[in-house]
Design a protein that fits this description.
Elements: H1 7-12, E1 31-32, H2 44-49, H3 54-70, H4 79-89, E2 104-108, H5 114-120, E3 128-133, H6 136-145, E4 152-156, E5 169-175, H7 184-194, E6 195-206, H8 213-226, H9 235-242, E7 246-252, E8 256-262
Parallel strand pairs: 1-4, 2-3, 2-5, 3-4, 5-6
Antiparallel strand pairs: 6-8, 7-8
The chain binds S-adenosylmethionine.
Residues 46, 49, 63, 109-111, 114-115, 133-135, 138, 158-160, 175-177, 180-181 line the site of S-adenosylmethionine.
């Protein structure tokens, strides 16, 4: 999908930026705020996300198999149920509902845009869902798979240093990624900052199976070797409460947790 086919969505995102570039790079279809100069030293987990192979199988194979097992398949929610919960907790509408809100939504670490497109089905009018990711290969896939006229657009940026204005969004979603960030709590500070007061946040992330100290030590070892963080049961809800979120709620699955709240 080229920018010429979806120009208004790609350009609208410029209005949401804290520091819009004078000469925005939209050559790949998404707004690239990292460019070649921002090459980082990715963790093992992030290197996998930046490969050219994973984006090809992510949405149809990797995501449903890996995540559904982690959510307790066959008892846990499948992808469709998970997406419906995301729209519901974020205060969005149901697909096809004529009264869907014209919300401005951020999907942090959107990968190939699978959740971004599901959220876009829940917004109406001139609503917009902005998917942000650091991986150029994931975003190329997101652009290719997002139909013209969809209320979605993409930005290449760093989730730990969100490039958006304060209170720019009505809702923020971060699925399957908090555990990959080198500093998840700074990322959470950023998500809080870009949410308007009364805006809603939802996070789907890892969950430590047992609260035992031994598993905490094991979790730290995994983080150092792979860059993958395993969160304790009250760690993420506590972090939301610390940042002044109200109506904090959580659903626990065997190896994942869904956490949400409303910004004060
Ligand atoms: C497992 S995918 C999640 C995709 C989608 N949100 C989902 O739920 O299926 C994780 C994504 O996080 C992205 N990511 C990891 N660290 C990031 C960072 N610091 N900034 C932006 N994206 C990041 C990766 O590039 C990858 O596309």
């Amino acid at each position: 999908m080229s920018t010429t086919q979806r120009p208004s969505a790609a350009r609208r995102v410029l209005d949401l930026l804290r520091d819009p570039p004078a000469d925005p790079d939209l050559s790949a279809g998404y707004l690239d705020l990292l460019g070649p100069a921002e090459e980082r030293a990715p963790s093992l987990a992030q290197s996998v996300m930046e490969s050219t192979f994973l984006p090809r199988i992510y949405e149809k194979v990797w995501r449903p198999v890996g995540f559904n097992l982690a959510k307790g398949w066959p008892i846990g929610p499948d992808t469709a149920a998970e997406q419906a919960t995301a729209r519901d907790w974020l205060g969005l509408g149901r697909p096809g509902d004529p009264d869907r809100p014209a919300a401005t939504v951020l999907d942090v670490a959107c990968g190939p845009g699978n959740v971004t497109r599901a959220l876009a089905e829940g917004v109406g009018g001139d609503g917009l869902v902005v998917g942000l990711d650091a991986s150029a290969t994931m975003l190329a896939r997101a652009e290719a798979d997002t139909p013209a006229g969809d209320r979605a657009c993409y930005v290449r940026g760093n989730a730990v240093d969100l490039p958006f204005r304060d209170a720019a969004f009505d809702a923020v979603c971060c699925f399957g990624a908090l555990y990959l960030f080198d500093d998840p709590w700074t990322a959470l500070d950023g998500m809080t900052r870009v949410l308007r007061p009364g805006g809603r946040l939802i996070i789907l992330t890892s969950r430590r199976l047992t609260p035992l100290h031994a598993s905490k030590v094991g979790g730290e070892l995994i983080r150092r070797v792979t860059g993958y963080t395993v969160f304790g049961d009250r760690e993420v809800t506590g972090a939301l409460a610390d940042r002044g979120f109200t109506a904090v709620r959580r659903r626990r699955y065997p190896l994942m947790q869904l956490v949400g709240g409303t910004r004060t």
